[in-house]
Specification:
heterodimer, A: alpha+beta, 5-stranded antiparallel beta sheet, 5-stranded mixed beta sheet, 16 helices, B: alpha/beta, 5-stranded parallel beta sheet, elongated
Chain lengths: 503, 213
């Protein structure tokens, strides 16, 4: 959520700056938005500075696309180092005297040294600073940790902030004037500026924000995932697309870490359950062995009882299936994999987990009651992750009843459709309940009431449930014990799961 | 009521597949088998130990813990040798079971030779127990035929008193004691005092002083 809030603020700032820019730049002046934005950039090299009332020389040879002298300097930024051509004078007017103007110089020394300073290292760098202090908008844009890119309808970049340069690995001035196609592999994921935002069909209405995830390319050719928010604005100075680019690498990394952590806790949970799981596997093996040995004995009889033999073989097949089912379930939980979302039956998820904890419950003298509302609609989600949540809640419930008298040891797990149209799963125990000082931190990491607990189970459960678009909470029961609830939306459309990953 | 009646092996396991498989195996070994899916059905199924019997019991039953069932059976006088089967027997559990009279404690999956040997042993024990119990029953029946006076005489006799002493203690003539003593010997179907002592010794409540009611 914070990311989107930041985006909102940024867009607001950028819009504000546009308003301001439009006010500042009069008609007939070098009023191209890009030139103004370029003027605000720091100038490591190849810049000239001019005070208001002066002028600046620009090279007409570099005008690639515009006939208007006002905009030519924008074009000239493309090849700043090519030298040896005639200059045209671009007047700057109406700027306040103390405002230092800056533009890129194309090679030859300026004609009018009174008014135009070449980019001597001292001047260029020193003077760039007051310029920034002077303009809060440009400061704001450069302070932003997010990359801001402004491009025209052809995909030509007219402005980038410092963060954008850093993100893509180019000097800022190298990006100005180049096409956005350079930043994203058009084949793999067409850069939205040129290809989709300004397409003829006008899919993106003006002012509409679009957010997408694409693959971008750094200067060194390395591809990396980005999330890009684009807004498209048009006004008297032309149409522009405003975009904020966020590096998703870290966020993806974070998601991966979270997944690894979830996997780790899953494995450690299974470790705790190892004895019970061995028992689950032992049951069918016991039946198989006894059946096989019984068959060996029956075969020595004359005549062989074929009916009996057939039954034994049938049971052998059944029990072998049963054993492999147990292994499959364990393997599914241990599996380290990408999150796969698919339509799931909640009842099925619960059943799978209840089977796994079956013998653990018996050992602890706990009865597990499963109550499933008839005809529950399927949810969209990752089976293993949801199983992990159920497993975690069930084992917590078991632990909570450690000190309980035997007859009261019942854990119920109930799934139903709640009034708001979500599927609600409630795991109710008759244990000690949640203490007042724990309740607020229940779902935070490393909060545990167990002697040897890591305190990660519930926090991971929460992130899984939230990732699925649901909620998780806990309440103490009126009589005794506590109930943990979580909800899952029905028919969550595929693809919405990853975008819900909380930052 | 004799040990020659058919030996029955009861199997109690909540796992239907195991129940069936064990049942088959034990049947294949020539025993009569009765399988139960829960301790409750086994308890309520009035399996009076009519003959030699033993129980193959899964420790991890959902309704009653196997050890509790054992306790309950002992309390209800339905005691029979129990062979415990467990998926994960720990030492504490094994010790408790053995103390409570388990014949054997086998872990799943159980090998047929181990299981059948345990069953044979258990049935043997059961048959011993059965004959001991029927003998006891017979002694009790015989003892119930005694009159209160004869009981008193018996009590003192097995304590090693001589006829004279008994007569003195009970305040009756020695001659009468002799008559009582002969009746006791007859009713108890014993021929010597030694035999009488041995027989009455088998009835534990007898050691307590008999009530003169």
């Amino acid at each position: 959520m914070t990311v989107f809030a930041v985006c909102g603020v940024v867009i607001f700032i950028v819009l504000l700056s546009f308003v301001k820019i439009r006010r500042l730049i009069p008609k007939g002046a070098p009023n191209d938005l890009a030139s103004h934005l370029q003027r605000l950039k720091p100038a490591p090299n190849n810049y000239v500075f001019a005070y208001e009332g002066g002028g600046m020389d620009a090279d007409p040879a570099f005008n690639m696309r515009s006939e208007h002298a006002d905009i030519r300097q924008t074009a000239s930024f493309r090849k700043p180092r090519e030298a040896g051509r005639s200059f045209i004078r671009v007047p700057f007017r109406r700027f306040k005297p103390q405002r230092l103007l800056r533009a890129q110089l194309s090679g030859d020394p300026p004609k009018n040294p009174d008014k135009i300073w070449s980019d001597s290292p001292t001047l260029g760098r020193k003077e760039a600073r007051p310029l920034h202090d002077d303009d809060p908008f440009s400061c704001a844009l450069d302070l932003l940790p997010l990359a801001v890119i402004v491009a025209d309808p052809n995909g030509e970049i007219v402005f980038v902030n410092v963060a954008a340069g850093e993100l893509f690995g180019y000097p800022v001035e190298d990006l100005i004037g180049s096409n956005t196609i350079k930043l994203g592999d058009a084949l793999k994921s067409p850069w939205p500026f040129a290809d989709s935002l300004f397409d003829a069909s006008g899919r993106h209405a003006e002012g509409e924000k679009s957010v997408r995830e694409v693959v971008a390319i750094r200067k060194d050719g390395v591809e990396f995932p980005v999330e890009i928010s684009i807004k498209h604005i048009s006004g008297p100075t032309g149409a522009y697309s405003l975009s904020i680019v966020m590096d998703r690498t870290e966020r993806n990394e974070l998601a991966r870490h979270r997944q690894q952590l979830a996997h780790l806790t899953r494995v450690s949970t299974l470790g705790e359950l190892a004895g019970s799981l061995a028992h689950e596997l032992n049951q069918p093996l016991t039946a198989i062995l006894s059946n096989a040995q019984a068959a060996q004995r029956f075969l020595t009889a004359e005549p062989v009882n074929l009916v009996e033999m057939r039954e034994i073989l049938h049971d052998l097949v059944q029990d072998t299936h049963r054993a492999s089912e147990v292994i499959k379930r364990i393997r599914a939980l241990v599996k380290k994999g990408e999150i796969e979302t698919a339509p799931l039956s909640v009842a099925g998820v619960i059943r799978d987990v209840v089977v796994l904890v079956h013998s653990d419950a018996i050992v602890r003298g706990i009865r597990v009651v499963v109550i499933t509302a008839p005809e529950l609609p399927p949810v969209q989600g990752d089976r293993v992750q949801l199983q992990q949540v159920v497993l975690n809640l069930l084992l917590n419930a078991f632990d909570a009843m450690e000190s309980c008298s035997l007859p009261g040891r019942v854990v119920s797990i109930q799934s139903s459709v709640d009034p708001s149209g979500e599927i609600r799963i409630a795991v109710r125990d008759g244990g000690t309940g949640i203490s007042r000082d724990t309740v607020s931190r229940l779902f935070t990491p490393f909060c545990t009431s167990k002697r040897d607990g890591l305190g990660l189970g519930l926090s991971i459960s929460r992130s899984i449930v939230e990732m699925h678009g649901g909620r998780i909470w806990a309440e103490n029961n009126n009589d005794r014990g506590a109930t943990f609830y979580f909800t899952l939306p029905i028919g969550n459309p595929p693809g919405s799961v990853p975008s819900r990953v909380a930052p | 009521m004799t040990s020659s009646s058919v030996a029955t092996v009861f199997v109690v396991d909540d796992d239907e597949a195991i129940c069936r498989a064990l049942g088959r195996l034990i049947r294949a070994a020539g025993h009569v088998v009765a399988c139960f899916g829960s301790a409750q059905t086994f308890l309520s199924a009035d399996v009076r130990t009519a003959g030699t019997a033993c129980l193959v019991l899964d420790v991890g039953l959902p309704d009653i813990n196997g050890l509790e069932l054992q306790r309950e059976m002992n309390a209800a006088g339905k005691a029979m040798p129990i062979i415990f089967l467990t998926g994960r027997g720990d030492i504490a559990m094994t010790v408790r079971a053995m103390k409570a009279g388990a014949t054997d404690f086998l872990s799943k999956p159980v090998n047929e030779t181990d299981l059948l040997r345990a069953i044979d042993l258990a049935l043997q024990r059961s048959s011993h127990e059965l004959s001991r119990r029927s003998e006891l029953e017979a002694i009790r029946t015989r003892m119930s035929l005694l009159t209160p006076r004869e009981r008193q005489v018996l009590t003192l006799l097995v304590k090693g008193r001589m006829n004279k002493q008994v007569a003195c203690e009970l305040g009756i003539a020695e001659k009468t004691i002799k008559v009582h003593r002969a009746r006791v010997m007859e009713k108890m179907a014993t021929r010597s005092l030694v035999e009488l002592v041995r027989v009455t010794d088998k009835v534990p409540p007898f050691s307590a002083s008999p009530s003169i009611s």
